[in-house]
Amino acid sequence: MQTVIFAMFVIGILLILRDMAKIIFWERRRKKEALQFDAGPQREQMEKYARSFQRLASTFYDMPVRREGFSPQETERMLRETEETVCSRCAGREECWRRKRYRSRELGENLIRAMEMAEPEVITAAQGDWFDMCRNGARFLEELKHIFVRERQNLIWNNRLIEGRLAVAEQLGEISRIMQQVANDIYNITLAPAEQEEQVRKVLARKQVLVKQMWMLEKAQGKLRFFLTLRARSGQCVTIREVTRILSGVFECPIAAARESRVVLSRDYTTILFQEDVHFQVLTGVARITREAESVSGDNYLCSDEGDSYLLCLSDGCGSGMEACRESENVVELLELFLSSGFSRETAARMVNSALVLQRSEGMFSTVDICSLDLYTGICEFLKAGAASTFIRRDHWVETVSSTSLAAGLVQELDFESTTKKLYDGDYLIMVTDGVLDALPEENAEEVMKEFIMENTSTSPREMGRTLLERVMGCSGYRAADDMTVLVAGIWKKQ
Asked: Which pLDDT score is estimated for 399?
């Protein structure tokens, strides 16, 4: 529940920001003599908000940090409290805490450090040294243990509060970044040059399409992106596909409409986003098997076409069964929620980790394995936390992308391992959970998997995943000791 509230709070803020941007954009009226929007005041205000959120985030980062052990001052306080409780009426107090106070402090600190280490041999040795000095050692030790447990619990709760504070700081920082991005988007929206707009008007008019307004939107890497407010003449039926074909001829490059656009133009004006079409397309397939004696898999995955990129995510919940399924499902759903709201991939992964830490049950965690492919360039970004190796099948060889990082939900400040690779026409991405590799010979599991991939002749991602899983199962006597998932993505150039 805490995770859901947390996510909805952040998404609510982002939706408000999105609506603000829309209002600013649509309330601008076009003037014939102007070539760009007067977005200066709106941009400045949005940047002001961004700086405010960033300063607020900084105040959280400047607060006390997480501690794994007690400070010298806390140790001294625990010993003093125990002394006041146990030694107040002891005849040997003057001897122990006055004349031999340095020795008593040293042995008392050793007791506390031994309890922190929780190693039986160390505790036994520290207790023996204390009993040799203290005539009331058993009672003193019992009281010190009581105080230690109380203070240890206080430390745990304090660390949880610090973790929550750091999670909030990350959220505020990301909101600041998104506000800045909104400001930049507003600033980069301009009216199309008059000559270019007139050319578009004339060409589309020949196909019974009327253009009211045209805006250009500057985009990273020089990709063409623009809005058209247009409609079909009364009684005419014109498809968006036909419009994109015409625009492709005008701009001399493939043009595509946004995925959420309507299919057919009507007589009412509508505004549609057109952009330079991507150069690659992706087909995916998945093969899964559940651990023996379990009814549901603890593995969950996501395949999502983001327009200019394709996202694959695979998560393996701790253990197996329903509880592991809920854990990994939570990871995948939160990732999809944050990414669709405009968060960067790494930030989304970090926020998911923060959410898992805040709601963490003892021993519960999930792996995070993200592949994000730029459909323009073919560059793929890999983001891993505790995940198994990913395999890339080229023409005549197989490459691996591995990670040694911890799984999500274990620690607040988790370092996600990030790698980028260039993918080409005909390459395949093979993502697996650790149950797949664990079923292979331990000494060379990855090498065996690479052999299986190279020997696979399937061109269908679905068939490739199914065949690979069958071969892995053959190595384990067709018994699933853990949940297994093979997610395959084939990359091809668009024709």
From this structure: 93
Query: What pLDDT score was predicted for residue 443?
Result: 80
Output the CA–CA distances (angstroms, integers) from residue 334 to 7, 316, 447, in the order listed.
Answer: 7, 14, 33
Assess contact for 365 and 323: CB atoms under 8 A.
no
pLDDT per position as a tens digit, 400-456: 998 777 666 556 566 677 889 999 999 999 999 988 998 888 788 899 999 999 999
The predicted-structure confidence for 466-484, as pLDDT tens digits, reads as follows 999 999 998 888 888 888 9
Neighbours of 21 (CB within 10 A): 19
CA–CA gap between residue 449 and residue 248 (Å, rounded): 44
Q: What does the alpha-carbon distance between residue 191 and residue 30 come to, in Å, rounded to a whole number?
A: 8
| Domains of the chain and any CATH numbers | 1-187 (no CATH), 192-277 (3.30.980), 280-493 (3.60.40.10)
- How many other CB atoms are there within 10 angstroms of residue 492's CB atom? 14
Per DSSP bridges, beta strands 428-432 and 368-374 are unpaired
Q: What is the DSSP string of 118-158?
A: T-HHHHHHHHHHHHHH-TTHHHHHHHHHHHHHHHHHHHHHH
Q: What angle do CA 422, 428, 348 make, to 5 degrees?
A: 65
Whole-number Å distance between alpha carbons of 153 and 143? 16
Long-range contacts at 210-215 (CB < 8 A, ≥ 24 apart): 212/269, 213/30, 213/271, 215/189, 215/190, 215/191
- Helices vs strands, H then E, count in the chain: 14, 17
- Decide: pTM greater than 0.70: no
Q: Which residues contact 319 (CB under 8 A, 6 or more apart)?
A: 298
CA distances from 42 to 11, 37, 180 (A): 22, 11, 11
The Cα 462–Cα 458 span in angstroms is 9
The single residue listed with the structure tokens 């805040």 is: 358
**Can you tell me the distance from the alpha carbon of 39 to that of 190, in angstroms, rounded to the nearest whole number?**
10
Q: Describe the strand order of the beta sheet including 398-401 as a list of residue ranges.
A: 280-289, 484-493, 428-432, 390-393, 398-401
Tracing tokens 């050319």 back to the chain, one arrives at 199
Specify whether the CB–CB gap between 230 and 265 falls below 8 A. Answer: yes
State the CB neighbour count (10 A cutoff) for residue 56. Answer: 15
What distance in Å separates the CA atoms of residue 445 and residue 441, rounded to the nearest whole number? Answer: 5
Cross-strand pairs, 492? 281
CB 15 within 8 A of CB 371: no
